[in-house]
Design goal:
Order of helices and strands: HEEHEHHEHEHEEEHE
Number of helices: 7
Number of domains: 2
Shape: globular
Structural class: alpha+beta
Strand content: 15-25%
Largest sheet: 7 strands, mixed
CATH superfamily of the largest domain: Glutaredoxin
Amino acid sequence: MTVRKSALWAVLSCSALMLSLVATTNTMALEPGAGAKVGAAEKKDDKKQDKKDEKKAAATAKVGEKAPEFTLTDTDGKTVKLADLLADKDTKAVVIEWFNPECPYVVKQHGKTTTMPDTYKAFKDKGVKWVAINSSAKGKEGFGKDLNAKAKNDWKIEYPILLDESGEVGQAYGAKTTPHMYIITKDGKLAYAGAIDDDRSADKAGKKNYVKNALEEILKGSNVTESETRPYGCSVKYDAKKKG
Protein backbone atom coordinates (compact mmCIF):
# COMPACT_ATOMS: atom_id res chain seq x y z
CA MET A 1 0.00 0.00 0.00
CA THR A 2 2.80 2.38 0.90
CA VAL A 3 4.50 1.78 -2.47
CA ARG A 4 1.21 2.36 -4.35
CA LYS A 5 0.56 5.62 -2.46
CA SER A 6 4.07 6.85 -3.22
CA ALA A 7 3.67 6.01 -6.89
CA LEU A 8 0.28 7.76 -7.04
CA TRP A 9 1.69 10.83 -5.32
CA ALA A 10 4.57 10.95 -7.80
CA VAL A 11 2.13 10.78 -10.76
CA LEU A 12 -0.02 13.59 -9.32
CA SER A 13 3.01 15.79 -8.64
CA CYS A 14 4.28 15.25 -12.17
CA SER A 15 0.88 16.13 -13.65
CA ALA A 16 0.72 19.33 -11.59
CA LEU A 17 4.19 20.29 -12.78
CA MET A 18 3.22 19.72 -16.42
CA LEU A 19 0.07 21.85 -16.04
CA SER A 20 2.16 24.63 -14.52
CA LEU A 21 4.59 24.50 -17.43
CA VAL A 22 1.74 24.64 -19.96
CA ALA A 23 0.22 27.68 -18.22
CA THR A 24 3.57 29.44 -18.16
CA THR A 25 4.15 28.68 -21.84
CA ASN A 26 0.71 30.07 -22.76
CA THR A 27 1.39 33.23 -20.76
CA MET A 28 4.74 33.72 -22.46
CA ALA A 29 3.10 33.20 -25.85
CA LEU A 30 0.55 35.92 -25.10
CA GLU A 31 3.03 38.53 -23.91
CA PRO A 32 4.69 39.23 -27.28
CA GLY A 33 1.28 39.65 -28.91
CA ALA A 34 0.20 42.12 -26.25
CA GLY A 35 3.45 44.01 -26.63
CA ALA A 36 2.99 44.13 -30.40
CA LYS A 37 -0.45 45.67 -29.95
CA VAL A 38 0.91 48.32 -27.59
CA GLY A 39 3.80 49.01 -29.96
CA ALA A 40 1.42 49.39 -32.90
CA ALA A 41 -0.72 51.81 -30.91
CA GLU A 42 2.33 53.86 -29.98
CA LYS A 43 3.48 53.99 -33.61
CA LYS A 44 0.00 55.12 -34.66
CA ASP A 45 0.09 57.92 -32.08
CA ASP A 46 3.58 58.92 -33.23
CA LYS A 47 2.39 59.14 -36.84
CA LYS A 48 -0.53 61.34 -35.81
CA GLN A 49 1.82 63.66 -33.91
CA ASP A 50 4.25 63.75 -36.85
CA LYS A 51 1.45 64.77 -39.21
CA LYS A 52 0.29 67.42 -36.75
CA ASP A 53 3.83 68.80 -36.45
CA GLU A 54 4.28 68.77 -40.25
CA LYS A 55 0.99 70.61 -40.74
CA LYS A 56 1.96 73.19 -38.13
CA ALA A 57 5.40 73.69 -39.68
CA ALA A 58 3.89 74.07 -43.15
CA ALA A 59 1.54 76.75 -41.86
CA THR A 60 4.32 78.79 -40.26
CA ALA A 61 5.83 81.65 -42.26
CA LYS A 62 9.30 81.03 -43.67
CA VAL A 63 11.86 83.53 -44.92
CA GLY A 64 11.86 83.62 -48.71
CA GLU A 65 8.24 82.49 -48.95
CA LYS A 66 4.92 84.33 -49.11
CA ALA A 67 3.95 85.92 -45.81
CA PRO A 68 0.57 84.87 -44.38
CA GLU A 69 -2.23 87.31 -45.17
CA PHE A 70 -4.07 88.91 -42.27
CA THR A 71 -6.99 91.20 -41.58
CA LEU A 72 -7.06 92.65 -38.06
CA THR A 73 -8.61 95.56 -36.19
CA ASP A 74 -6.52 98.21 -34.46
CA THR A 75 -7.14 99.97 -31.15
CA ASP A 76 -9.17 102.65 -32.94
CA GLY A 77 -11.48 100.08 -34.50
CA LYS A 78 -9.98 100.42 -37.96
CA THR A 79 -9.51 97.32 -40.14
CA VAL A 80 -5.99 96.78 -41.45
CA LYS A 81 -5.12 94.27 -44.17
CA LEU A 82 -1.64 93.18 -45.18
CA ALA A 83 -2.79 93.10 -48.81
CA ASP A 84 -3.77 96.78 -48.63
CA LEU A 85 -0.45 97.77 -47.09
CA LEU A 86 1.44 96.00 -49.86
CA ALA A 87 -0.86 97.36 -52.57
CA ASP A 88 0.03 100.97 -51.76
CA LYS A 89 2.16 102.21 -54.66
CA ASP A 90 4.64 103.83 -52.27
CA THR A 91 5.22 100.70 -50.18
CA LYS A 92 8.70 99.20 -50.34
CA ALA A 93 8.39 96.96 -47.28
CA VAL A 94 6.13 96.19 -44.31
CA VAL A 95 7.50 95.68 -40.80
CA ILE A 96 5.53 93.67 -38.23
CA GLU A 97 6.41 94.00 -34.56
CA TRP A 98 4.89 91.51 -32.09
CA PHE A 99 3.76 93.58 -29.14
CA ASN A 100 2.78 93.33 -25.47
CA PRO A 101 2.78 96.61 -23.49
CA GLU A 102 3.32 94.77 -20.18
CA CYS A 103 6.41 92.88 -21.35
CA PRO A 104 9.70 94.35 -19.98
CA TYR A 105 11.42 93.76 -23.32
CA VAL A 106 8.78 95.80 -25.13
CA VAL A 107 9.08 98.49 -22.45
CA LYS A 108 12.83 98.45 -23.12
CA GLN A 109 12.38 99.12 -26.83
CA HIS A 110 9.72 101.81 -26.45
CA GLY A 111 10.56 103.42 -23.12
CA LYS A 112 14.07 102.77 -21.88
CA THR A 113 15.97 102.87 -25.19
CA THR A 114 13.48 104.03 -27.90
CA THR A 115 15.13 101.65 -30.38
CA MET A 116 11.77 100.69 -31.87
CA PRO A 117 10.37 104.19 -32.52
CA ASP A 118 13.77 105.45 -33.69
CA THR A 119 13.96 102.65 -36.27
CA TYR A 120 10.40 103.34 -37.41
CA LYS A 121 11.07 107.08 -37.82
CA ALA A 122 14.25 106.44 -39.81
CA PHE A 123 12.28 104.60 -42.50
CA LYS A 124 8.69 105.88 -42.37
CA ASP A 125 9.28 108.34 -45.23
CA LYS A 126 11.13 105.78 -47.34
CA GLY A 127 8.20 103.55 -48.22
CA VAL A 128 8.31 101.34 -45.11
CA LYS A 129 4.95 100.60 -43.46
CA TRP A 130 4.96 99.46 -39.83
CA VAL A 131 2.37 97.71 -37.66
CA ALA A 132 2.43 96.17 -34.20
CA ILE A 133 0.41 93.01 -33.49
CA ASN A 134 -0.67 91.88 -30.02
CA SER A 135 -1.61 88.19 -29.84
CA SER A 136 -2.30 88.10 -26.09
CA ALA A 137 -5.42 86.06 -25.30
CA LYS A 138 -8.21 87.14 -22.97
CA GLY A 139 -7.06 87.08 -19.35
CA LYS A 140 -3.38 87.04 -20.34
CA GLU A 141 -0.68 89.65 -19.84
CA GLY A 142 -1.01 92.56 -22.29
CA PHE A 143 -4.57 91.75 -23.37
CA GLY A 144 -7.19 94.36 -24.12
CA LYS A 145 -7.95 97.24 -26.47
CA ASP A 146 -7.90 99.89 -23.74
CA LEU A 147 -4.53 98.77 -22.36
CA ASN A 148 -2.95 98.81 -25.80
CA ALA A 149 -4.56 102.14 -26.70
CA LYS A 150 -3.08 103.61 -23.52
CA ALA A 151 0.38 102.26 -24.39
CA LYS A 152 0.07 103.72 -27.88
CA ASN A 153 -0.76 107.10 -26.40
CA ASP A 154 1.82 107.01 -23.57
CA TRP A 155 4.67 105.97 -25.86
CA LYS A 156 3.43 108.17 -28.72
CA ILE A 157 3.45 105.22 -31.11
CA GLU A 158 2.60 106.53 -34.59
CA TYR A 159 1.71 103.21 -36.23
CA PRO A 160 -1.33 100.99 -35.55
CA ILE A 161 -1.45 98.32 -32.85
CA LEU A 162 -3.51 95.40 -34.20
CA LEU A 163 -5.35 92.99 -31.93
CA ASP A 164 -4.99 89.25 -32.63
CA GLU A 165 -6.83 87.87 -29.60
CA SER A 166 -7.37 84.45 -31.19
CA GLY A 167 -3.63 84.15 -31.80
CA GLU A 168 -4.22 82.84 -35.32
CA VAL A 169 -2.03 85.42 -37.03
CA GLY A 170 0.73 85.06 -34.46
CA GLN A 171 0.80 81.29 -34.88
CA ALA A 172 0.68 81.58 -38.67
CA TYR A 173 3.85 83.66 -38.51
CA GLY A 174 5.38 81.54 -35.77
CA ALA A 175 5.74 84.55 -33.46
CA LYS A 176 7.41 83.38 -30.25
CA THR A 177 8.37 86.50 -28.33
CA THR A 178 7.49 90.13 -27.76
CA PRO A 179 9.02 91.71 -29.61
CA HIS A 180 9.45 89.37 -32.59
CA MET A 181 10.15 91.21 -35.82
CA TYR A 182 9.19 90.39 -39.40
CA ILE A 183 9.90 92.29 -42.63
CA ILE A 184 7.85 91.67 -45.77
CA THR A 185 8.97 92.98 -49.15
CA LYS A 186 6.76 94.54 -51.83
CA ASP A 187 6.23 91.16 -53.50
CA GLY A 188 4.69 89.79 -50.30
CA LYS A 189 7.62 87.59 -49.35
CA LEU A 190 9.12 87.37 -45.89
CA ALA A 191 12.63 88.85 -45.98
CA TYR A 192 13.54 88.92 -42.29
CA ALA A 193 12.43 87.22 -39.07
CA GLY A 194 13.97 87.57 -35.62
CA ALA A 195 15.14 90.08 -33.04
CA ILE A 196 15.20 93.87 -33.28
CA ASP A 197 18.81 94.04 -32.05
CA ASP A 198 21.64 92.02 -30.54
CA ASP A 199 21.30 92.89 -26.83
CA ARG A 200 19.11 90.30 -25.15
CA SER A 201 18.84 92.17 -21.84
CA ALA A 202 15.71 94.00 -20.73
CA ASP A 203 17.37 97.37 -20.26
CA LYS A 204 20.17 98.06 -22.76
CA ALA A 205 20.14 98.95 -26.46
CA GLY A 206 21.95 96.62 -28.80
CA LYS A 207 25.02 97.59 -30.81
CA LYS A 208 23.61 95.94 -33.94
CA ASN A 209 20.08 96.76 -35.14
CA TYR A 210 19.07 93.80 -37.32
CA VAL A 211 15.87 95.44 -38.58
CA LYS A 212 17.66 98.65 -39.57
CA ASN A 213 20.34 96.70 -41.44
CA ALA A 214 17.77 94.54 -43.22
CA LEU A 215 15.67 97.53 -44.31
CA GLU A 216 18.72 99.35 -45.65
CA GLU A 217 19.61 96.32 -47.78
CA ILE A 218 16.03 95.91 -49.02
CA LEU A 219 15.80 99.57 -50.06
CA LYS A 220 19.07 99.18 -51.99
CA GLY A 221 17.60 96.19 -53.81
CA SER A 222 20.00 93.76 -52.14
CA ASN A 223 19.33 90.47 -50.42
CA VAL A 224 19.19 90.60 -46.62
CA THR A 225 22.53 89.36 -45.26
CA GLU A 226 21.18 88.28 -41.87
CA SER A 227 17.66 87.20 -42.79
CA GLU A 228 17.04 85.19 -39.62
CA THR A 229 18.13 85.82 -36.04
CA ARG A 230 16.99 84.37 -32.72
CA PRO A 231 14.22 86.52 -31.22
CA TYR A 232 14.24 87.39 -27.53
CA GLY A 233 11.70 88.77 -25.06
CA CYS A 234 8.60 87.57 -23.25
CA SER A 235 6.73 84.61 -24.69
CA VAL A 236 3.66 85.50 -26.74
CA LYS A 237 0.67 84.99 -24.45
CA TYR A 238 -1.45 82.73 -26.64
CA ASP A 239 -4.62 80.99 -25.53
CA ALA A 240 -3.29 77.66 -24.19
CA LYS A 241 -6.35 75.80 -25.52
CA LYS A 242 -5.72 76.99 -29.07
CA LYS A 243 -1.94 76.93 -29.06
CA GLY A 244 -0.42 74.47 -31.51
